[in-house]
Write the structure tokens for this entry.
Amino acid sequence: MSERDHSRLHIRDIADGDHAAVLALNLESEALLSPMDAPRLRALLDETAYARVLVEGEQVLGFLLAFREGCTYDSPNYRWFQAHYPRFLYIDRIAVAASQQGRGLGAVFYRDLFDFARADGIGAIACEFYSQPLNEGSSRFHAKFGFGEVGTQWVAEGRKQVSLQIAAP
């Protein structure tokens, strides 16, 4: 992505008017994310430490939700990190519009998230991706940001395995 492309992008906190776009992006990527309806989004936003959208003009191109330790969030992957790390920032979900793939927007989000974590003194950023079946794109992407595997677990009633990952901001 060129510097000119960067100048048109803006990351900001999710506003009420963004909910429809966030839900549509989540639905578009639901094969890799957990389902989410409007009540679930509102419940998640009540607990997130980082809930931001990436916009170009007025168009929402993507979103990222992340949680700190100590939440009541019911994700088995979040709970795994909660049991193993005293202080962390957990990336629950990131979605970028299919029409915007290949522009490096995920990296724009991660740089912002890492800046957020450093500013708050958070020493561990946690995430997971499917390892069975392997999500190769996600594996390569996270390796570029210094993530390394710290555990695995089976999810989706034993149909999928996740690689639990940690990186230092």
Q: What stands out?
A: The chain has one domain: 3-167. The domain at 3-167 is CATH 3.40.630.30 (Aminopeptidase). The chain is about 35% helix and 30% strand.
